[in-house]
Amino acid sequence: MTRSLLILYGSETGNAQDCAETVFRIARRLGCDARLSAMDRYPFIRIVDENLVVFVASTTGQGAVPANMKAPCSSTILILEILVLVAPQQPPRRPAACLEIRHLWPRRLQLYKLEQRLSQLGAQSILPRGEGDDQHPHGLAVFDHSDSRVDGGFVPWLDKLKAFIHPDTPIPDALPPDAILPPIHSISVHSDSIMGLHSDSIMGLQSDSIMGLHSDSIMGLHSLDSHSMEGSIPVVVVQNMRITAKDHWQDVRHIIFKSHPLDFDPGDVAVIYPLNPPPDVSLFCQLQRYNATTMVSVSSYPHPIPLHHLIACHLDIHSIPRRSFFNLASYFTTNPTHQQKLVQLSSPENSDDLYDYTSRPRRTILEVLADFPDIRIPLEYLLDVIPPLHPRHFSIANSTEKTEIHLAAAIVRYKTILWKERWGVCSRYLDSLIIGTCHTTRLTLGTTISIDIEKSWVKLPDSKTPMVLIGPGTGIAPMRSLIQSRSQNPAAETILFFGCRNKEKDFLFRDEWKYHNVVLFPAFSRDQKNKEYVQHVITRQHQLIRDIVRRGAWEFGENATGRSSLSVGYSRAC
Fold it and tell me: Where is the Flavodoxin-like domain (predicted)?
């Protein structure tokens, strides 16, 4: 009898989705009737009819719930609670297995208690919860966990799941290891595809073809990873100015977008969908022998689109390849030596080799394909092998002018042991934005952009409430928005702690603070022999903070790096 298996994932940057797809492929290979879905796409009214459910969930940022998990969580809990209330004598007991992908320092983050909540609502766990850390040198494969009740790493947890699905008795429907599974995502060549043009024609298509694809066309492409651009706002770039010293190691930009009057508040976030540069799209097509102007049909989009549009705005060809990439790529080369090497890199036993080849030098998928030129990814497998290009989020740094959106964006640009300079995908895109021309599509390279605005979950106090703001580096962006908002009307005391390296090099918006009703305490860590950070200044001002907290002050902290111990310094001061 074929075992039924449902895999549900909540993913923000693609790590959990990649793990879920790996579980799906293994289950299919073992002969299971496996199905895969993002949590926000699954009709949860059917959950009680499932035999076995695997939940793969990640944290994002400081432990928040992924975007494609927010909507279903409430509906799942509501549905299961109704079922329990209707039939309390026979609560639903659905077998479940949970894998949590922790993003950044898992021991410091408290996940949203998915496993605990499922258990409360009647789910029966079949395996210990698995955890993985995408920042571990070996990636998600292994992760040392002090809790014996938790499986550390994706691979050990997956081995136990395979043992549960595939016991010692052989399964007739199981597939051999060398058999390639059908693709998960659907993509095909359209019957009326443009023929005769080659990948180098992309450069000549920028002005006509790329500018002709409007933002409503992108909604379908990005829906593949459950991100929608519904309501995206076309904006004009009116400023892209460096605000750190030219000799400073970090390039921080003050970028201003102009648009019609917008609805946003302090703490809201601008969501930007970056593009791959046309030369890199052209190189990708050359390596894969693709006709760049081929019209392709994607299951989540109703109309055919040129292949180079799909690669430019949906595929993350500059991401660091995961283990699953090498596993799939090994099926698509006819070079025995290359195939053996790809299989080795996909094996958990060779985690050190994978780390040295990919993570340490930050080698990208595009560069791996250049290193293995015999890899030929069939078009129908393109969306399975190459991960989706995810949006980037930036705190909005203004509030007074509602026809503008200001960003304080650090350009990620660095060198590794490889000869070619590394760029952040969105950093290179922002760096290329040129002031001027208006167009209603985010695909107008170097001129305009379309953005989304995400509302903050934080409910801000009224202006009569004193505030303590902590914003080091580019974390000053939401503080600037909040201070501008409070300056428009009489407001209670506002204290701002800001930190950077040098007063003369990266003191962001330094000339503005004197025009606002704010008490500023800066910390410049490199301007004196003994390094001084924000937490040191907070500790010295403990009496001031204690007094303002007693008067009901509200604290708002933004961490530019995710690592600093601001909360520690603040708690000690209080």
Answer: 5-162
